[in-house]
């Protein structure tokens, strides 16, 4: 498995696909999603079922002001990530990009698994989008002008790049575009409440340990996730303190030789990607954790290595990480 370049905070996306992140949520880690989406739940509107508002609105986008429906009802998400942000706000798209939505966990799979696919992870099929008959197209990654012009001929097209925003900002902006500001505010309030709750509940253990989130990159290298990596921003919001060298890392990820695993010894706790059950190690990282140098790390010897869900693509999926960290911190506290 390659590193999931989901949406590092305010930096460019990397080269790999998003399927791996969503697959990690297949094991029932939708508790947080179930909580935050309680106001949407089974009442989520399939795109196309809601009555379109009689007025149009002008919204701000990366491509300048765009006139959109008063309340869009037939939305196509023309890259992988936007589908989750739209579902978070109670609307099911009429077309989505990529695939593997049947393995995205109970908060998303029932809504997205049967939605028609209109292209791959990042490159949409213009003809398939047109066939879906959208009243709005959303792109949540940087978009070339030529593609933007093609999409704009089909329906109003909004580009709000996740690559330039933090997850709370994404929820707010998508809420504005969809005419669902109340839903976005509710989601944001839930995120603030949950992260504050984790900070308060686990203040002692959070003050005791520093953390590093690492992932295997290849047979000879691993990645260290820094403060600008999307998942790490969620961890920081939850009160996690990073260990060096991750704490001072300027880039979202740093690829490091396996020979330098010893650099991780300053971390009191190591976080690694979880597999499909969300609780055990992703097998793609077995080479990393099997290295003799890894086994000599203090956190490893003390059994302070925890798999976590990763690849947050929306505020709702970020909340799934918050819920997993609540469990991790509870286990860590019990063992301390």
TrEMBL record:
Residue ranges, annotated region (Disordered): 44-63
Subcellular location: Cell envelope
Signal recorded as keyword: yes
Top-level taxonomic group: Bacteria
Domain Fe/B12 periplasmic-binding: 74-336
PROSITE patterns linked: FE_B12_PBP (PS50983), TAT (PS51318)
InterPro entries: ABC_transptr_periplasmic_BD (IPR002491), Bact_iron-sidero_bind (IPR051313), TAT_signal (IPR006311)
UniProt keyword terms in alphabetical order: Signal, Transport
Protein family (similarity comment): Belongs to the bacterial solute-binding protein 8 family.
Protein name: ABC transporter substrate-binding protein
Species, as recorded: Phytohabitans kaempferiae
